[in-house]
């Protein structure tokens, strides 16, 4: 039977997290009796991630692996995973499962009830300190500055576009994703802009950060890249 849900996880040198994350996903899917596939996309990482995933594949038949040797970026990896997926509803998240698995059912319920895209928002929790206490000051400041530019330049009123958990209907994914040009971290932002432009329904859900893993983002370098990407998206749209 074809899976109803596809869970896509881009990885890049994530050996510390990926094994535990796959185990957690398997436990969740089995306990909830959810028919799903897990697609791991290696974005050119060179550590032990590939070996760990390949070992899990022997144990868990629902796990599939795209092992690419060249680094292309998160956006590229998500699109690659979507192309290989079979689920009616697609969820993509980060290798360390930063928000755990408890929000997956909420995402699926909203997609089933009419939303085209569901995005996690860390700022919707009343006790914001709880959801951001494990994030460093530099990352919090970068997050605030990014959100400010997004509102000013792109007219997106979402206070959190970059949380690493989103879900999308298959029809919407195959309509929108081929239009996207951003391969790296601005992929999430361009996705929102294009979905909004298409008049599709976007649903936000409040989330609390559970796991603050080691980020692959370098604040100085990637903040500049993100700024350039925002300008590119602004010029495009």
Topology (SSEs and partners):
Layout lengths: L4 E7 L6 H15 L3 E8 L5 H11 L3 E6 L5 H10 L5 E5 L10 H9 L4 E5 L6 H5 L4 H18 L10 E5 H7 L10 H11 L4 E5 L12 H18 L1
Parallel strand pairs: 1-2, 1-4, 2-3, 5-7
Antiparallel strand pairs: 4-6, 5-6
Textual characterization of the structure:
By secondary structure, this protein is of the alpha/beta class. It has a single domain, classed as Alpha-Beta Complex (Spore Coat Polysaccharide Biosynthesis Protein SpsA, Chain A). It is built from 9 helices and 7 strands. It has a 7-stranded mixed β-sheet with strand order 3-2-1-4-6-5-7, with helices on both faces. α1 (18-32) packs parallel to α2 and α6 runs parallel beside α9. The protein is globular.
Main attributes of the structure:
237 residues, alpha/beta, Spore Coat Polysaccharide Biosynthesis Protein SpsA, Chain A, 9 helices, 17% strand
CATH class: Alpha Beta
Distance between the termini: 40 Å
Give the percentage of residues in beta strands.
Answer: 15-25%
- Ranges with pLDDT <50 over ≥5 residues? 127-133
Alpha-beta classification: alpha/beta
* Helix count from the secondary structure assignment: 9
Radius of gyration: 17 Å
Q: What's the order of the H and E elements?
A: EHEHEHEHEHHEHHEH
């Amino acid at each position: 039977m074809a899976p109803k849900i596809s869970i896509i996880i881009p990885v890049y040198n994530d050996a510390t997290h990926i094994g535990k994350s796959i185990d957690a996903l398997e436990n969740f899917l089995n306990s909830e009796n959810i028919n799903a596939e897990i697609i791991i996309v290696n974005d050119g990482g060179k550590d032990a991630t590939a070996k760990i995933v390949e070992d899990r594949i022997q144990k868990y038949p629902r796990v599939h692996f795209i092992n690419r040797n060249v680094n292309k970026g998160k956006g590229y990896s998500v699109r690659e995973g979507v192309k290989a997926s079979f689920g009616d509803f697609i969820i993509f998240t980060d290798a360390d499962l930063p928000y755990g698995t408890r929000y997956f059912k909420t995402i699926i319920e909203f997609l089933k009830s009419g939303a085209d895209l569901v995005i996690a928002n860390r700022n919707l929790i009343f006790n914001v300190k709880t959801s951001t206490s494990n994030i460093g000051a530099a990352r919090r400041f970068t997050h605030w500055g990014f959100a400010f530019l997004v509102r000013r330049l792109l007219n997106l009123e979402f206070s959190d576009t970059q949380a690493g958990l989103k879900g999308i209907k298959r029809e919407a994914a195959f309509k929108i994703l081929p239009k996207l040009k951003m391969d790296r971290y601005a992929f999430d932002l361009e996705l929102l802009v294009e979905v909004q432009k298409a008049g599709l329904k976007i649903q936000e859900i409040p989330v609390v950060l559970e796991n603050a893993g080691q980020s692959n983002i370098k604040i100085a370098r990637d903040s500049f890249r993100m700024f350039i990407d925002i300008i590119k998206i602004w010029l495009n749209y």
